[in-house]
Write a structure and sequence with these properties.
This protein is α/β, with parallel strands linked by helices. The protein has one domain: Alpha-Beta Barrel (TIM Barrel), CATH 3.20.20.100. The chain has 10 helices and 10 strands. The strands form 2 sheets. Strands 9-8-7-6-5-4-3-10 form an 8-stranded parallel β-sheet. Strands 1-2 form a two-stranded antiparallel sheet.
Length: 330
Amino acid sequence: MKYRRLGKHGMRVSEISLGAWLTYGGTVEDETSIQLIHQALEAGINFIDIADVYSGGKAEEVVGKALEGDTYNRKDYILSSKVFWPMSDKPNDSGLSRKHIMDSIENTLDRLNQDYLDIYYCHRFDWLTPLEETVMAMDDLVRDGRVRYWGTSVWSAAQIERAVGIAKEIGARLPAVEQPRYNMLDRHIELEIMESSRYHGIGITPWSPLAQGVLTGKYNNDIPEGSRGTRSEFMKRDLTDEKLSKVRKLTELATEMNISMSQLALAWILRRSEITSVITGATKQEQLEQNLGAVDVELSSDKLQYIEEILANKPEFHPVYTPALMNREE
């Protein structure tokens, strides 16, 4: 395994990390989830990413079970979670208010059976809470030791800049990391978010690096019955004839290089120095092992140029999706 610093900060994070979105505590049995977490840690992955909203808190519980006992030393792994999305229909159980942040960190730590998180992300931008209130709350969590670093997830460059400006003005800890969606088919962060993050020394830990499986080649010929592609509205934008045609050409390149399509897609993300770690999902040991192999893939300038010719998709702006919070009034 190879490791990178979290932006300008000293903490070193494995280039490949393990995420629990849509898997642990949900579609994957707990025993299998725990085995995969153990295998990931033993293979050198030191970063596990979850969120309170994943499977309604069950993902945190499963990760907590996987890490209990004396097998794994707490100082040897990095644990992150997130706050924002509604956890119930109660009026204060969502968003980035001081109250919700403080309540949520306690619930998350209880589910994980942990004393602290290494990273705590604001899981979207909250238009209904003053940003200074959010920044101060995250700073307090860092000061009292319940959080080591705080970050943002799916924030625009302008929102990140505002948070940095407020933090500097009030003497609070700056956000240390952003977690955006980034992959071969969605390159919007290359326009401003990467530049802003690089300037402020903020790490980037992208999610959906394989476009929910599209960049594995799984959908090259058709959409398998019962697969996520048959039921996910979110995936429809990536399951177009134009994009699948590109994935087929990329798969041919990967075959020529004697690597998998997923390894090519992950190595392509890791080509950027702004990236700290790529958050991957795994429901089987073979997927985990395949993802791990991406750190050893070297993409020459000729290969990168050929990939650019296939993709032909210069970064484009698209809105950061932040729906109205449920049951909250201005």
